[in-house]
Design brief:
The complex is a heterodimer of chains A (248) and B (198). Chain A is mainly α and 248 residues long. Chain A contains 13 helices and no strands. The C terminus of chain A is likely disordered. In chain B, helix 2 runs parallel beside helix 4, helix 3 runs antiparallel to helix 4 and helix 7 packs across helix 9. By secondary structure, chain B is mostly helical. In chain B, 72% of the residues lie in helices and 0% in strands. Chain B has one domain. In chain B, 39% of the residues are buried. Classes of the chains: A mainly alpha (248), B mainly alpha (198). At the A-B interface, helix 1, helix 3, helix 4, helix 5 and helix 6 of A face helix 2, helix 3, helix 6, helix 7 and helix 9 of B.
């Protein structure tokens, strides 16, 4: 006679009707005399039946419509991921293709990147933290008035806007592999920042340097990306050539 | 309908009609998968939308010849497991939600609906008592209705391993159900490990 452990091994297949007639008969004979296995089979059958009741479940009527209604809603989700640098290279390529065609999404992309740049530029300067820490040691100020934080913030915002306008969107530039443009823009903005920073005072100088340092890091990484791309393409001239031939 | 590979290929090229066709062809099993793992009807819908976004975002990773549901599980596994974690914490499931039960076939029969609900409530509580990995197997097979071959591909395991693990999961769940029903107290370790006719 078949043993309990053998029955347990075959119980799923038995309940799903996946056994040969001979095995099925042996199990049925065992279940007729073994209370333990019969109770297990009953409980397992209950689980399988409960799950199967979902077989006829249909999605809500409007779900398909919501999933397919607005293509730009999906692109927007991808935009958020791209701005956070959390997107696969293949998906990014698809997104860039879409941005070329869709003005609305392109505007959103520009807005999102600008907001992110401004946000990144508005981190407090290291000296400010030190000042806050030692503030209680100082006497109340009666001397010259240092430019307020609000003005400094506005200046940093303006700088980030100017940087974006002058340099352009980093990813879009990467798309067109405009290394020369990036270098020129970098020099122009660098000169401008140097002038403001050397003639400015107090917090505004710190904020400007802070914003510029961020911009410089972005530019450097962009240059590295472009140089990498160039070197990759020079290693595979055959592919590029054939692609251009196709385009042409 | 054209084959799935061609539809996916057109989706990759940005064809919105192809995306509509893909959603239309797969919404049934994908929604059922999400409803199996989500804690409420509303979250099942949200999860379905999140899963579809994830699939759309990952279209490049779909290889021709792959099983679509197996690929969907691999791509959206984390979303589904997170949802199931909430089910366990809240001791809830979308398939206990009246909104879902009302959409099941035979929902116009109050007695049948009450029986459904009773059985499903028993199972959701028992599922919370077994290992999450084992519960996922039961949900994939018995609730989401995945085929063994799909599960093997999704979990990247040999077919035989999937079958034996699922059998083990169902036995543990059956033990938990019996405890809850209190038909007859049972020591699960004794039941699972001891052989021979009692």
């Amino acid at each position: 006679m078949i043993r309990c452990d053998e029955v347990r091994d075959l119980l799923s297949a038995y309940l799903e009707g996946g056994l040969e007639a001979a095995d099925r008969s042996r199990i049925e004979a065992h279940l007729a005399v073994c209370e333990e296995c019969a109770a297990a089979a009953e409980a397992m059958g209950l689980v399988i039946t409960a799950g199967k009741e979902l077989a006829g479940l249909t999605p809500p009527a409007d779900l398909t419509a919501r999933l397919t209604a607005s293509p730009c809603a999906r692109w927007l989700g991808l935009l958020f991921h791209a701005v956070d640098h959390e997107v696969a290279p293949e998906a990014l390529a698809r997104l860039l293709d879409h941005l070329e065609k869709c003005e609305g999404c392109r505007r959103t992309w520009d807005d999102l990147t600008l907001i992110q740049q401004v946000g990144a530029a508005l981190t407090p300067p290291p000296r400010l933290a030190q000042r806050c820490y030692t503030a209680h040691l100082r006497r109340p100020r009666t001397g010259r008035r240092i430019m307020g934080m609000r003005t400094a913030t506005a200046a940093a915002y303006l700088l980030a806007v100017l940087t974006t306008l002058a340099v352009g969107n980093p990813v879009t530039l990467a798309r067109y592999r405009a290394l020369g443009t990036v270098q020129q823009a970098s020099e122009i903005v660098s000169d401008g920042v140097n002038q403001v920073a050397t003639s400015g005072r107090g917090e505004i100088r710190v904020m400007i340097w802070r914003a510029w340092r961020w911009g410089k890091t972005q530019l450097d990484s962009l240059k590295e990306l472009l140089e990498d791309k160039d070197s990759t393409q020079s290693q595979a001239p055959q592919t590029t050539h054939s692609k251009e031939a196709q385009d042409g | 309908m054209e084959d799935l590979e061609a539809t996916v290929e057109r989706c990759r090229a940005g064809d919105d009609e192809a995306w509509r066709a893909l959603v239309g062809a797969t919404i049934g099993p994908i929604y059922r998968l999400c409803a199996s793992f989500a804690p409420s009807a509303a979250e099942a819908e949200e999860l379905t939308q999140d899963v579809y976004f994830k699939l759309w975002e990952s279209l490049e990773r779909y290889h021709p010849g792959s099983n679509f549901m197996a690929w969907a599980w691999r791509v959206a596994k984390n979303l589904l497991i997170d949802a199931h974690r909430r089910c366990r914490r809240e001791r809830q499931a979308a398939w206990l939600d009246p909104e879902v039960l009302d959409r099941l076939p035979g929902a116009d029969n109050p007695q049948r609906t009450a029986e459904h609900r009773q059985r499903l409530r028993l199972v959701v509580r028992s599922l919370g008592q077994i290992e999450p990995e084992l519960a996922h197997l039961v949900l994939l097979r018995d609730f989401a209705g995945m085929a063994y071959q799909e599960m093997a591909e999704a979990l990247e395991l040999p077919l035989g391993t999937v079958k034996s693990r699922l059998n083990r999961a169902r036995l543990e769940l059956a033990t938990a159900v019996r405890r809850r029903l209190d038909i007859r107290p049972v020591d699960s370790q004794t039941f699972l490990n001891e052989g021979g006719v009692p």
